[in-house]
Protein 1
Amino acid sequence: MNRPADCIPRAGALDALLPLVEKPTRYVGGEWNQVVKDPAAIDVSIALAFPDVYEIGMSHLGFRILYAMLNEREDWAAERCFMPWHDMLALLRERELPLVTLETRRPLAAFDVVGFSMQSELTITNVLAMLERGGIPLLASERAERDPLVLMGGPVIFNPEPFADFADAILAGDAEEALPAMLERYQTLRREGASRLEILRAIARIDGWYVPGLYDVEPEPRLGMLIPRPKPGEDVPPRVRRAIVYDLDRFPYPAKIVVPHAEIVHDRVSWEVMRGCPVGCRFCQAGYVYRPTRERDPAAVAEGIRRSLAETGYDSFSLSSLNTGEYTPVEPLMTSLMDELEPRRISVGLGSLHASTMTETLAEQVRRVRKSGFTMAPEAGTQRLRDVINKNLTEEQILEACRLAFVADWKLLKLYFMLGLPTETDEDVDGIAELAGKVLEIGRRIGGSRVRITCSASTFIPKPFTPFQWCGMVPEEVFSARQERLRRAMPRGVTFRHHPRAESWLEGVLSRADRSVGRAILGAYRRGAVLDAWSEHLRLDVWRAAFVEAGIDAEALATRDIPLDAELPWEVIDTQLRRRWLEHEYHRAHAVRTVDPCGPTSCAGCAPFAVECVKGILSEKKTWRASPPAPPAVPATEPEVPPDERPLPVYRWRARFEKQGPARFLGHLDLVRALQQSFRRAGILLEHTRGFKPRPKVALSPALGLGIASCDEYLDFETTVRLEPPEFLARINASLPEGLRFLALVPLDGARVSLQEAIRRATYRARIP
């Protein structure tokens, strides 16, 4: 079903650009565990397009899940494409080259389906840039039969209307069932010769799928917002029901995730243990639209983490969810895993914890092997405001959680707050500084003067399908005054950081907009807006001009309060949350009343599936019984040795290797990282340094310039066991990414001579055009 591309890049044309850009590893491909299929041998080709840079897209859990899941089908091929940075985008435009995927370097226009993962409203201009460079018309109404279907999904599209002009179909909810169902329907209909419109009509009848082109809009009488209605004669639902996967264990998390060449934002094995959150913070969209809370089987989590560490070579993992401390078996699971993995110098991490779930056991497990900063999100500085937002958290719980972190020897603690919350007063702002001061006092008393506290304040943004969706943002002048008040009140010894309000304001505009804003989005892009989620590239003047040109009062979209009886554009999506219940939560917030976290013994009746939640069918709590671990990933000849009981002697080695193909674009630190991961995949245990952050004892020959291939480079390393060179070469070469290959290994005996001292000369060979 693959179409011929209009613009296939010339051989070597893209390679010629790589030495000219800041981070060429974003564009080379060839990573460990990537999947490359012959385009001629598959039925459906899918370009998974992430509208942000490589380091962010490669960190996203959903992106990893879909890539592995879709490529399990022999007749489907999923490839990756990311938003190029400004330097690469400018070169592609200047030389009229297309944006291509990493796997086969085909333009987006050559694929059957292009799916965008929308994690932020501000990435919409990136979507337009990727479509344009990929050879696809920007507007869905202008796409022809041979153009790919453009899909969107992710949390942002719970208000799909601002993006409706650009998407052929939009998925609301979990993708594990809904996306394959859509692709199977597409595959069947395309084979039968169905038209593009016939395929879209069929997609619109699958749970979770919204096809904007089959809906008209009409103004709502109170505020004039445009409300989607099915077009006359179209058999589509008035409200599109969210797709929900109730049993996560039916869709195991992939162990063979792609290992990027360069360090990414979340550079570790991240394992989703739970979806949804039971707490119910009233500002948190994810906490509402991903209900009910569903937990994964801890035995499957433990086994999956073991396999993924072996398949990737990572030396750290994290248990991921919106609120991992609420995962029922988190303590015994972490204890069991760390007892098993600590001897291999593998560490564990957790995201921001709800302070009420912080325990001495959690603090102790996370601190094993190595520690980074510890993060907590009180969100508000006073108890009154924490009750307004239903944080279900007291000051005593916050201070106790911080105390446990300091006792466990953390020196850096990050506190996250939010400014501009509904009903916020100056007293609430002062409360942030007072709470930060109390945390600092506890830290200094336990950890001394080396303790550092960072206090970050983001901006409240009203999000659809939350109790605060009817509340406007505070005006710019009020917000600036509160921000400055907090800066002045912050005690000495606490570092204060804040999120730029310009980004938050634009996000607020887009999060509560209707379909008319599509004109402004296109206008802003035509005026040069791109990479808007990066504050140094956001051009707010361009956006304001585009809003004016489109006749849109952007300030009102962001700051006005919406009447509770007004119909809302985003209600074309049925999240299966009761609107009446959200209204009750709005009133409870303004009455400073809290609601207990969801659970079998406490249910507020938020959704039609609430009865099942109470029975424990959907939110079944998982139990953990530690079972004997799977056979170790390392061979029996290399036992796992506790770090404080290492045998002597330590063996020192020098290896010779070559670096060709995509590997020649690895920077020095990226090369070190890639080699260390390859050693772990090969089961070769390296000797580590002692101290706060143990590191493998390795040294490389002098760094080459980026893009220079090599026939002879050298690596010194130490092991706790004797290696046999032929066996070592076979094992390590089977574990290296494309372009790296070891050629020889010799033992180093006698006095230590560093590589820097041993290497006296280098020979270069250059081809002159």
Protein 2
Amino acid sequence: MNKLTYKFKKNDSLNRWIKLGTFETEKTFSNSTMEGEINNEWLVKGHAIHEFPGRKEFIEQRVSVDSIIKGDHDLYHGLKQRYKDKEKKWELQFPFESPVVEDEGFWDIPTHLEAWTFTELHSEENQLATFKLSTCGGVKIWVNDQIIEEFTPFTRNVLSSKVISIHLQKGINKVLVYYDDLAERDTKFSFQLEYLKGKELSISVPIDDQEPQSIYELEYLLYGAYFERDSYTFGEINFEFMNEVSIPFKLICKSKVERCQMEIREYEVCTGSTSILLGNIHDFQMGYNAIEMIIEFNEIKISRNFGVEIYPIELEHLNSSTIQDRKKNALEITANYGEHNIYKVLAGFHSLKFKDMDKNKLESYLLIIDKEIKQINNRHDCSDFSMIMFFRLIHDFKSSKYISIPLMKRIKDMILNYRYWIDEPGNDVMWFFSENHALIFHSCELLAGQLYSNEIFPNANISGKEHYARAEQRLIGWFNRFFNEGLAEWNSAPYIPINVIGLIALYDFAESNEIRDKAAKALDQIFKWLAINSCDGFLTCSQGRVYEKELKGNYNTQTTSLSWIAWGKGVINYSTFGAVPLSLSNYIPSINYKDYIELPKNKFLSYSNQQGPNGYVNLYTYKQNGVMLSSAINFKIGARGYQEHVLQASFGPEANVWINHPGEKVTQGKGRPSYWAGNGYLPKINQYKYLAVAIFSIDDDHAIDFTHAYVPTFAFDDYDLTNNWIFLKKGDKYLAVYASNGLELVRTGLNKNRELISRGRKNIWILRTSSSLEFSNFETFKENLIKTPIYIDNATQKGSYVDSGLGNVTFGWNDPLKINKQIIEVIDETVMGKLIIN
């Protein structure tokens, strides 16, 4: 029996296994109701604190399992085994950066997840080894066929830990682990075994007759692989290898754009190759592609996740002279390239005449409607985002040839039987508690009650009139919070468009004048924020909730298409949320807001405002045409972070720089926070005009002991890394980034030439934007900053320097930002905020 062998020492995590799984079983629980307010407490605490009733029922029904190993049965890669009437193979797991055995994903309905892992620990002597066991769900461990631990905290998406001791015998020790959890929406299905105390061990993973050295080489090859850039707008896409290929293999590329179909491509990679041509950008779905690269060699599969944005830049040249032209073009683009949902169907129905519609196209649209109805009837999470558009489908096409009488009956039954709020019975895991979901649910309820006022809705057992009355009061409460507090998910590229969906539905279809007027007022405010906080039409500011796909995929964010439709700034893209409702509505964002995007060359804009309940966040944006600096001032200083994006300098869709403390080690993980989106620990941030300071103090309990900056050098015209500084140039706009602990530009692997790492748990970063209006050229800008005296004391976390434009600047963890001894504060602003253009 051949084996892969790895050293294993103190503080390492046991992450080399073969795995049997994951086994998924959809669960149905008793119908129940919930209570809860839309107060965004879950955002403050950084995780989902609202427990669905089904979890308690699941835990009560759960039965402990027996070992899957029978007698002297050996386990190894490739072995087939049955568990619960399903047969799977034991397969090698390649952790890359991850210390955790983990599957992260999104399950729309309650699902029981189960998996088995196996490995061998080799000890030179008998010893008592100490480990820290962590899990979100339940874990059961056998060593040498003996149960040594069963730990079942079932704390959803929050790792719970305990210290355990394992008696290891001299020689081989067989370790078998069963772990399970109930998936509810976003789920971290995981466990971790960290080695705390004991003599050095080795790990052996049995691989049958596979050749170990080839596997080592191929794993290393994939570890060093990368894409040259994060956004491709024309030409060919190459997947690059750090070294020449020494062993021929098959490469499988699985690319998936959110809410679109997965695309699978296969390539034969020959010895001597240094890259593989994946194809032209037009061969791929437009959007941010989550890419799984799989090396297949004999019966071994080595998999790693990557991500790239695909956007055909020729779409920039679409006719955009009037908003009517832009709305028409947006519908046509969506009908052809959009996400496969009800929004695409509506775009197609409106942009294509029935008599000219290809039969296959119509059938594809009807299949999408069928899929959406099934998902809504099954109460998939985010089904409310689809439900809201069926009211437009009914309004626009009820009597058309598109919608047959039987299909209309299915739609009506779907609306009557839906669950419209948490106080209605249900056993689903739909998420109600964020501002955007609350608005959509309330809007759906109002329009449903309005449409079928005299019908009985079986789920709540009330009439449409009663639903309407409930929804009207709930919406008034939502609007009151919005106008008084703004949004706790401030300026969020993924979630602002969801709010636009609900507001436009109310603006277009609500019978209540009060509701329509409030919807129009709210839309005006949102589009004003969108214009102020965008750089050339791309929403690249501080954001209350964000994902890596939005941070790195600005050509394809939903807010980018909203900006393009509204003012011709930004670009149109594949995104349907927001864009389709706006294109079909009579609502027109104020043309005056375009002035906040198209600033004259010698003008500067500053904007400060407050959003969220109880002064949740103070925001500051400073920009001129082509460069913007944005931050969340003193936001939750030193606290654990979630998905908050608190500091960014922007020069457009690709040339963006931000600083954060990674939330996890996996560079392409889905954590909240993840490697690039959010913060493990939040910094203290202050900003004044074109200068921002971020001070980090990271607790020892966090696995990541560095901070870093996303700096896509390929997107800038020039850059220079000098000592503790990096200087970047885009056109005649400049940026300087400084870190007190020094900067290391990553030169290999997935983040090659786009990540600056600064070591240490205490660190101070400075960002300084500028342009040719202040410095005649890039060299003058660099020379000025390099000569600037900077004093930093990391121990006390205080610092000062003399800025050529501002004067004497001082700052500290316990001190305010001061410019020439004057305290600079952004506090107690209103939701509307203070806007200055000079």
Protein 3
Amino acid sequence: MLKTSTIFKFPCGPEATLSQVGGKGLSLIKSSESGMPVPPGFVLSVHFFTPWLEQLKTSPEWTAFSQATAEQMQATCSALKSASAGFTFTNEQREAIDEFLEDFEVDALFAVRSSSPEEDLEGASFAGGYETILGVNKTSIESAVRRAFASCLDFRVAAYKREHGFDVSSPKIAVVVQRQIASKVAGVGFSINPLTNNFDEAVINANFGLGETVVGGLATPDTFTVDRNARTVSNKQLGGKETSIWLDDSGGTTEKPAVQKNDFCLTDQQVLELSDLIAKVEGIYGKPIDTEWALAENQFYLLQARPITAYMPLASNMVTSPCERKSLFLDATIVVQGLYKPMSPMGTSVIARVLTAASEHVLGQSILGDPHKSVATVQNGRIYINLSVMMAMFGRDKLAQVVQQMDPTSSQALCELDEHAYKAEKGAFSHPPFHLLMQLPEPILRLLESNLLPEHAHKSVDRAIANFMVETREHAQNDKSVMDVANDVIPAGFKFIFRHSVPLFAASRAALEQMKSIVGDINQPAWTKIQRALPNNVTTEMGLALYHLALLEPGSAAYREGWKLFVDLYGHRGPEEFDIASPRYRDQAQLLHDQIETLRKSANTTDNPQARFEQAQIERHEAYEELCEQIQKQHGWVQLKRFQAMYRVFENTSGYREMHKYLLIFVIDLLRQRLLSRAQQLVSEGRLDNVGQIFDLTLDDVTEADSNSHYDLRAAGQSNRTFSNRLAAVPSLPALFDSRGKILRPAPRAPREGEVVGTPISSGVVRGRIKVLHAPDEKPLLRGEILVARATDPGWTPLFVNAAAVILEIGGMLQHGALVAREYGLPCVSGIPNATALWEDGTIVEVDGTAGIIRTVDLI
């Protein structure tokens, strides 16, 4: 007889593991053992299905599947499912199941659900990918279990696995057999708000009958938002509840037209009772939870609980308790550097050292520290600015003006929030930073030089930069420790930037503002043109240098000389260069070769970077002459001379806005080279597996390793990566959020002509071409197209791989399609009546999943 350990009863069964019973099964066992109202049942473990899997792997269908290309996967998956359709229970399997079924009445009905060991993990939901069969009686258990088992062979599961890096060649499945609840109302509930990430709100979707209409997106449910702290229903929206599914007494289900569609299906008191249940489940798991529930005979039942996969976690030291004053954070890694994925631990460590050196030099103290009391904090690959502290120092409105220069959307959200709810009790500095006064004489002299003799100031700083790079490069090429090199080059780099390039850039900004006050509204097109194609911009010069390399014959002496010069000047640059772990151009010769080849193929004598730059220079000079003439006519000779003087300053110094980063990255790259050298030593000593692992460490880790030969660098690197890896899994990190996880965005604006408004389901903004589908296999959805459908059930899952965004006629924020869209990071809008008839294939639209707006884009 089959060992009973292959079947796990709940409640009151033996302990089980994820590998034995899968995500759903383990969740039900854990919840029922914790006293939650879980309908009883049992789980057929992975081992229970060993006979079927062994039989399957000897079939020709399995051979074809194991050798299939990506294009053949769907057909081979279908063949595998067909092969499994003839499987029957062995005598041992049947006897084991019958033994457990004896605990239930003769007329009991069951829900039979697939439960994979890979499903409902913290990083992957497989939402709706596996099979659920409802209203199963005892006589049809075998066929239902067979269907559930076969779902592990489904193409939509294989596609999801392939997209998320799972092994598709080793299917494993367990099956839950659970007492079916004949619910009057059912649905899903999140312990946090999935749209705003607010930890203090629970969101519940509900419909009459069974919850399948809500999970599968077959109806637009009622939506309830609960303020968990005040324990009130803060918002509720009546759903269309277009259809409902009911359990038949004899087995199976019946779909019926909407019942009481104009009434909410839960009272406020029931919503609060349900939110309390969801909070208890969250407490058991210790993390945000997505639940499925049912209401029958005034009793709430928990049908499923799983960790939410698509939310932004906060480090524990950034979270405030529900009753504390909240802190407001701006992610400078996004708004300043454009990095949406976390930096490496070493990159984080180095940037923290840079900011510390900079603030100590200027202010005499570090701006980094306690996330809730300091100006900034650097951790887990991110740089966060504490806007609450900044508001206490400057006020909300002035702060919003500063943020406007970095991110207009965050600035607008900042203007709209309640200042008193976020403003810290005091700023970061208890007294004026008098230390700053001691550092200003030399920069002020440079600033005066820039205003009086801009050409001379530029030449002087240009020479200083060349000398600094030579001297600092020599200084870093010695036998000092990594930490000593960091302590030498980082402060030296910032002092140089503060004393040389910053004053010139400050002069350019001041000159621009004075010019703007003179010009006013005289000629806006000309005003725009005089800010283009300015000289002395190191980034522009790098692009032009790359183009001139493309003009040379590859392999020639001139090309080799040009390549050497380019690498000497710009070899420390590269994609995502702010992170010291990112390879540089000197490390990626092929990247440079590819860019050169692209320029060689795409440019011609009339359309190339050099020609465009020179044409923009001509237009700038013409615009300048045009403005001078108009200023003299309208404001007179004195204002003209003032404008001309400021223009000289602006023209010579504006390009220095790019020099700070150029020099900073140069210094970081010097440290990078020293780190790589040390990494090679650690690899040779057997303490690291490869040189790249050095970037999983921090500067302190490397210092500790220098003095302690037993320090476990591999374990340190793994620990350093733990939380940043969780952040890296978030599809889209927000720029502005608070210490209770809430993502702050501007209030939705009123729709304009050419826009359609629906319910925001999954945030983000994207443009693409519409593809209207009435069935998942109607026609191919190409990469980057926007999927428009009436609703999406699990059978649509493979299409989400190619989709850029999703537009649905019906369904709530917790339906299957919404979960998958959020997990894939796809903007999604629902509740668009007649959506499949509003647009034709190929129509270009912009989908704003944050505001719930779709806008038709007219291409000129």
Protein 4
Amino acid sequence: MKIKILSLILILTAINIFSQSTTPPKKEFRAAWVATVTNLDWPSNPGLPIEQQKSSFIAILDVMKACNMNVVVFQVRTECDALYKSQIEPWSYWLTGAQGMAPGSSDWDPLQFAIEESHKRGMELHAWINPYRAVKTIGQYPISDQHISITHPSWILTFSSSKLKILNPGIPAVREYNLKVCMDIVNRYDVDGLHMDDYFYPYDPVISTEDQATFQQYPNGFTDIGNWRRNNVNLMMKMVMDSIKAVKPYVKFGISPFGIWKPGYPSGITGLNSYDVLFADPMAWLRQGSIDYLTPQLYWKIGGNQDYSKLMPWWADSTFKHNRMFVPGHIFNANYTNTELPRQFRLNRNNPKVSGSMLFRVANLVSNDKGFADSLKNDFYKYKCIIPSMNWKDVVAPNPPRDVAYTRLGNSPTAGFKWNLPLTAADGDSAKRYVIYQFDNALISSGDIADPKKILDVVGSRSAQPKTLVSATGDYFFLVTTLDRNNNESDISNIIQVTLPDVPSLAYPNNGAVNQPDDLVIKWNYANPAASYRLQISADPNFATTLVDKQNLTDTSFTIANLVGQKTFYWRVKSANVAGESAYSQVNSFTTGYPVAPLLVYPTNNTSLIPLLVNFSWKKTANTDSYRLQVAKSRNFDLNSMVLDTLGLTDTTFVKLLDCNRFHFYRVASSNSYGASLWSDIFAFKTDICNGVDDENASIPDEFLLKQNYPNPFNPTTKIAFNLLSNGFTTLHVYNILGEVVATLVNSELSKGAHEVTFDATGLPSGIYIYSLKSNGKQLSNKMMLIK
């Protein structure tokens, strides 16, 4: 028995090792939903400044790119509204804060921006729409006069118990309207796909007799209302697919239906289902060829009555039978352990009928929920890949790019790959993306690109600067292939060798330069063929320690700050590219000409009972023309806490009358014609008690306490009171439900006792907020509600 058990363990271990060591797929659909409804993923709040909207979307894309993902599914229609320039439907409330109100700039088009930024990164962008939902929550915000529920109220089905309104799928004009919206996006935008989710007929509540009159008016040959409802959806899906094929056949059409088709499919599966609750029939869409890919929302763990390990293979088999792509949808469920999603991904990888995965939602990926983003980067998506092609679409491979080179990019200070457009393919298709491969020898054939470990990057332009390989020390060989709209891949381009870059030569300041200013700009010359540079500055000519160590610099200059005055420093630069790093340049030196920071004299640090008329003093520094003195009520010297900020002082003393019984902080800087020194040390002191009475001991709380704000709910201001048991640095932050800081009410040294602050929420949307007090290692939090 022991021998049998041991044999079984060895077999299971071997299987596990094999599953971990097998070559990852070169072609895989790696997607995430970017939800905009109720500001789930983006933007974090309605009405944010456009630049903030842009930067936060770029941050999402950069996380996805770092995880080697390749498809962005961006929600652009949440409830018959638009997160793009539409002449059909009003601007979304979730974008601007008022439905129908345009963004602050007429140039701002989130969908166009998302497409451009995704394509730059070699990623596809699928525009995600909700086909029928018209008003998610009745009364949540004012509805625009342009909204379909106002302009065509007869097209609307209302479900008062859930405050929901939907477009009536049984009305032919509604189908035409939805088709118009879909094709407006497809025709005007360079989207790679159109995506719909599972909001067809509602499941909360399940539709009853609300559309009975529509059924009688437009029976379409049906006598059973359930079959009629399913046919309404089927008709629209076919209309959309046929229209896409007619104008842009390369655009993919995908749907993410509810994860259970019917109870008992597969055996043992129970629960809400797509077929007779939402009246959506994915099997019919497959039969009639109305979709390119299915992404069932398989939002259940392995095991139980909705078992992922049963549902996934059933959907895979059903989709494969009809020669369509299957990409299961996964969710970051709060009840999942940190091993659940990895287990599901392993099941996917072991099933050749699974083409990838789609994650709901991207915010959980960005926050690295349960460490899953790390799992993607370090395991499942460790290597880059390309999106699978669809063999029922165009299958003609494009031609390879021409004249691939690694050289200086224009007049920029860095080098990179560049190439010319390929010759037009036999089907007239154009290049859409490019794949850069890296090898350690020149003996490369077309078959060698089958290994995804050789993919250096996938990009959307005809030049690229992949990350430099700072650990590499030798020459490498590279080639590029073309991907067309259907991700068919060309043969290989010419093969090029990239060598280590030259050692940079230092340009400014001259070696041994003196009297350098506090805004010194260091410069060096372009090193061929460098893609980036590394700058080091040290007070030690041997660089045993460094004060500045900046890598991946893409300019040949750098502005220095925060160096000590009247001191000699040493600097050097090395260059890097995809083949590795050069040696360091020669070491040059320079000496700063501005003064050193003063030494503070009075008040001494951490003293109390300082007379209110304070005679600040500090020691004189050499080569100094004047001094600057700052006094504040917080250590960070923010504007709200600043008591004194005076410059141009030629003496080393200054007298200032201060408030009684308060903590204060002060610092001094010296300056001359070459600039200002660093700030001195910060000294803290407390002024004398008020009128002979020690306020501090008048009322000492016996509990560290954060009180409930009053009033609550509030609009737009409320008061927050708290007690501190001892003096100390204290913070009071307000967070939204996404955990983002929306206000900092306290960020300074406070004395023990009772305190109260006012929170003004003007400009913030209605909702739940959390305020958190932290002092002396202790923390308390409460919730409050803003209702406008």
